[in-house]
Amino acid sequence: MCGIVGYLGNRNALGPVVDGLKALEYRGYDSAGIAYINGGDCRVIKKAGRVEALEKLVRKEKAVPKLALGHTRWATHGAPTTQNAHPHFNHDKTIMVVHNGIIENFQVIKDRLTELGYQFSTETDTEVIPHLIEYHYKQSGSFEAAFEKTIQELEGAFAIVAISSLAPGQLFAARLSSPLVLGVGEDEFILASDPSAIMEHTKKVIYLEDYELAIINHDSYKIRNFDRSADVKKTAEELDFDLELAQLGNFPNFMLKEIFEAPQTIKLATLGRIRPASGTVKLGGLVDVKEKLKLIERIIIVACGTSYYAGLVGEYLIEELAHIPVEVQLASEFKYRFEPFSPSTAVIAISQSGETADTIAALKKIEGRHMLRLGIVNAVGSTIARMTDAGVYCHAGPEQAVASTKAFIAQVCVLAEIGLHFGNGKMKDRKNFLRELDNLPKKAEAVLAQADKIRKIAEKYTHFQDFLYIGRRYGYPCALEGALKLKEITYIHAEGYAAGEMKHGPLAMIDKHFATFAIAADCPLIEKIYSNISEIKARGGPIVAVATEGNRQIKKMVDDVIYIPKTLEQLQPILVAIVIQLFAYYAAIKLGRNVDRPRNLAKSVTVE
Length: 608
Ligand code: M6R
Prior knowledge:
Blueprint: E1 3-9, H1 14-23, E2 31-38, E3 41-48, H2 51-59, E4 67-73, E5 88-89, E6 95-103, H3 106-115, H4 128-140, H5 143-153, E7 156-164, E8 167-176, E9 181-185, E10 188-192, E11 204-207, E12 212-216, E13 221-225, E14 230-232, E15 237-238, H6 254-260, H7 262-270, E16 274-275, E17 280-281, H8 290-293, E18 298-303, H9 305-322, E19 326-330, H10 331-334, E20 345-351, H11 357-365, E21 372-377, H12 383-387, E22 390-393, H13 406-423, H14 430-448, H15 451-460, E23 466-471, H16 475-490, E24 493-498, E25 514-520, H17 526-538, E26 543-548, H18 553-557, E27 560-564, H19 572-590
Parallel strand pairs: 18-19, 18-20, 20-21, 21-22, 23-24, 23-25, 25-26, 26-27
Antiparallel strand pairs: 1-4, 1-10, 2-3, 2-4, 5-6, 6-7, 7-8, 8-12, 9-10, 9-11, 11-15, 12-13, 13-14, 16-17
Helix pairs in contact: 1-2, 3-4, 4-5, 7-13, 7-14, 9-13, 9-16, 13-19, 14-19, 15-19, 16-19
The structure holds 5-amino-5-deoxy-1-O-phosphono-D-mannitol.
5-amino-5-deoxy-1-O-phosphono-D-mannitol (M6R) binds next to α9 and α16.
């Protein structure tokens, strides 16, 4: 989704703003732009396409401005053209605005301003903002007041940053349902959609909350609640973000780097939390709600995309380890659904970014219903992390590639830990379970060691236009996730199915042109999976399978096998995930896709 950067300080503002836009590229975008104030003038430079192209134009600038803003746009209203790219401005280019989100009442505002003689040159909702600021500025003569008045009139979801030659030493920002972070450096301030654009400059940050706006001067800042028209006191907090982890190192792209971080991800998600010797699990993030947890009789997991599939694994895990009924719902459905709730229901929101609009909306829906809201979040300090009553961080480090990989692995680890935590002794062999979890990083390394073999197999299947992923029990969510990985980075059509459903429809599609990826790791239903595989083979369907080391039988049944080390069935999804991620990755590379930034997708989906 769109990325925002703003800078006010002693350096040439163009450097940190362009670097910030590069750091935010992973969020997905289709055009970029910057604006700066130099002396009394505003200048704007925009370009459809990549930040690289914008940077070439910016490098030609002779000015050394101290105040600038930038934006990467992911089109919602209007085509991804240079014209529609941000920043947007008023008629004489004295006010520059960048915006992330959607202004729901933009048409009403546009009609009103048009009647007053204002003219618009883009199809975007954002363009109403600079014009409305101008309108209010003409009434009050104060830019600060005009900015606040404008923000108060906007409906929808937004993060907005503005600069103006009418207030040449100030940076303005506001947020409602879209993230915005203020970095407080030595003699400088950096505003951004997320900390990755800030952490190079400072680790001191202030997270703006909903209904907050910031007015930043060279040596001070003021935060106000624009709903209550009142000042808010906020001090900077320390950012828990490892710069090293966010850099590429020797990997050709972030997706491969992040897949290869699987062993470390498991370690970080379990470190200090699991004690195999005593069979105990300690989740510091749940201590504050210890008493409330004892009353929980039902759990609803809400999430989107890969996090939703991790949630489905969690359903099996928590029901088996804690004997509590679990239901997993897509956040986008949950928020519009009517269902009876009781205070003995806990809602767990799972999100890598912690900024997914639908998941945030799902949590907002149950506000005030006296239900416990827990989070399984990767991005520290993100909106979901802050709006839940308690939670467990994934500690996977920054995930930059659009396709979620290591976050899924961390989420499943955390769900297993939560299952044991809730279970409180209900599982018979906890020590063995925890020993297995503790040993999993080594097994993940063994899977990664087969990367080249997986590459060769994946490359054999790139000419297929259709793929079916099948699995049972813990393998079923893996099938769904495998299909999602393949479609999002290769653009090959793929569907995930419960293998037991084959005869209820999907079998009709199978022929020699329709490939299947079977999750066939050892489990109590392995014989039934063999039957499904045989039915597909009998209809000429090519099959690649992931199976447990030592399974010779499957070799005779399918075209290609990728083996994972033996582990407990409940932990297989973690090892299977690495296989399906590498399979999709190598297929996408063979097809020449941009794996880190697949077309039409954004890393964090901050609008509905
Ligand atoms: O940040 P979140 O975990 O809330 O994101 C949810 C989905 O948008 C995300 O998992 C998406 O499906 C990924 N691109 C999948 O790889």
